[in-house]
Design a protein that fits this description.
With 322 residues, this protein is α/β, with parallel strands linked by helices. It has twelve helices and twelve strands. The longest helix has 18 residues. It binds adenosine-5'-diphosphate (ADP) and magnesium ion.
Amino acid sequence: MNEKILKVEDLHVDFHLGDRVIPAVDGVSFSLSKGETLGLVGESGCGKSVTALSIMRLLQMPPARITRGKILFRGENLLNKSDEDMRRIRGKDMSMIFQEPMTSLNPVLTIGYQISEVFIQHQNLSKEEALSKTIDMLELVRIPLPERVVKQYPHQLSGGMRQRVMIAVALACEPGLIIADEPTTALDVTVEAQILELINQLKSKINSSIIMISHDLGIVAEVADKVAVMYSGRIVEYGDVYSVFTEPKHPYTKGLLEAIPDIDMSRKKRLKEIRGVVPYPDEIKEGCRFKTRCDCTKEDCMVKEPPFLHVGGNLVRCWNYA
Ligand SMILES: Nc1ncnc2c1ncn2[C@@H]1O[C@H](COP(=O)(O)OP(=O)(O)O)[C@@H](O)[C@H]1O
Ligand SMILES: [Mg+2]
């Protein structure tokens, strides 16, 4: 498990809006071993999608600008690749599953055509070979009657089936890296559970490395080996899934965990919420970014950005452990 497939080093992404510069991703580093699943969690707006899109080189630039850092995929910096190289890498070596499959599937092309294209373009298969592989893929993601589904258009499928198709597209070339950005957020809970189970089964079959992005820690717990908690453009806690869930250290991680509903919780009991809202990334100029919502701030928190500290098995950016 130790061969590193992806290393993100000190990634900085700014958005330039008029004369405002928004540091959406501000010094993010992490690495991913072969076959490992990293859960990237945090509330909406903390920089998860921008991180993912940077890795895929799908960020719109401008308004975005990658100002610092490296994205090493199998040892090569993706930030130095040409657009043509990236097109070859995407789909073949790395692929992304988005929240709303309708936006990434082409409404006027059949499901069969869209998946076959991946095989034709990246593996030089003939039309017939590609179609038969497409049917295999649809079976793999447990779509019933694949021979019929290949002739259908995206709008003829349910949301859950479309997401399975997206997963089939993403897996088609057995990429080394898959990034799933809120893949189940648009689905109802039953379908969500099925999709997560599917991802878990495929993980062991294909042995890809996965970045699972979610605002929901419960989802990450189901699939991840390691967890990175993001807050306002930074990773504030990192560790293996067991230690982050059983012994969270950062006040933000603790808050997120307390906000997960228990199955047997009575309706009356209110979920604990983290007070306040995520600050816009350029709002807090100094100190810890979480200081405006934290219950245990000290003097240092107000003025100095906390460094990463080893606490138990986790890495934590919090002055309370200094
Ligand atoms: N196209 C854009 N233009 C300006 N700001 C953006 C754009 N996309 C994202 N941002 C800002 O970057 C920050 C991180 O966004 P994002 O990565 O989408 O958050 P998440 O995926 O964690 O919900 C947010 O503050 C968001 O407003
Ligand atoms: Mg997002």
